[in-house]
Fold Homoserine kinase.
Amino acid sequence: MHFGKEAKEATGRVVVKVPASTANLGPGFDSLGMALSLYSWISMTPAESTRIILVGDNLEGISQDKTNLVYVVAQAVFEKAGVRIPELEIGIRSDIPLTRGLGSSASAIVGALVAANSMIGNALTEDELFQMATALEKHPDNVGASLYGGIIAAAWDGARAEYVRIEPPSGMDVLVAIPEFELSTKKARNVLPDRISMEDAVFNVTHSSLLTAALASGRLDLLAHAMRDRLHQPYRAALIPGMEKILLEATEHGALGAVLSGAGPTILLLARSGDSNNEKLVAFVEEVMASEGVAVTTRWLTPCLQGPQVQLVGENDPEFNLEPHQILSNAKVEVGA
Ligand SMILES: Nc1ncnc2c1ncn2[C@@H]1O[C@H](COP(=O)(O)OP(=O)(O)O)[C@@H](O)[C@H]1O
Ligand SMILES: N[C@@H](CCOP(=O)(O)O)C(=O)O
């Protein structure tokens, strides 16, 4: 039983920084994921009574009681490890906008798993965390990318998830066009058909395989061909005005490839770093979305090469007595490896 040992260890504060993720990359539905240079932070410490503090503007509507996803996931870790820590002080800050297809839920799940596990001396293995995260999220693409960083190719059979991590090719930047409106993953999965034709299934298997191999071998020239999809994007297009035109025409404006990010509504474009056409690409995307009356925020990101970074703050550390919002609201908060 872990109780005595871990309960004693769980006295300090843990701060975890977790990357956002983009899933599918076009044809790799529920399989391919890439971590992005956009982050959320979770601080966690045992407390006399549970308090959940939300920091920043991106967490509106998130529950602050024991139904909160981060609290629930942390308790699942303690239960699996045989530890009881029912009351927690949790601070959450997220630069990842919610329900936009940038993996906010996966980042919250991975952050909660890693923070809770760090509190109890890493009683669970990384693989156990990946299995738990996949079962919670119901697909391994976002959680795998947030947990391992880089690009992951994964498969889940409902019982066990396996993955291979791929180092992202160098020289590749990521442009995201984030619409103002929200689209929950649940809603965007509900529009998918129960059955597809053999022709479309073959199209996706072949393109997903080519894409995985192209990413693994740095063949950026193949992305435009390989990032096409017939499994989910055509059905989701009706939910995202402007998406179809951007996906069709982005390569004419200098993109290496363009896809729906996760379940949307964010549109993600890959481009060569430092390409002189990159500002024109932004203008093209903004014009298309504006012509559809959709307000978007465009941002350049890069693939994030590492998973969660953990900082342990001991009880005697002066930082321990700061309020979570003081720790997390500092824009420069950087968590060491
Ligand atoms: N930090 C967080 N704490 C608690 N719940 C969160 C947090 N981040 C995301 N969530 C939950 O995940 C939901 C968004 O998940 P989802 O619809 O899959 O979109 P996405 O993961 O693409 O942002 C939010 O509405 C919220 O319920
Ligand atoms: N494979 C999933 C990915 C959902 O990603 P999210 O970031 O939108 O939650 C899907 O396409 O449904």
Summary: The radius of gyration is 20 Å. Residues 62, 68-70, 92, 94, 98-106, 108, 184-185, 262 surround adenosine-5'-diphosphate (ligand 1) (CB under 6 Å).
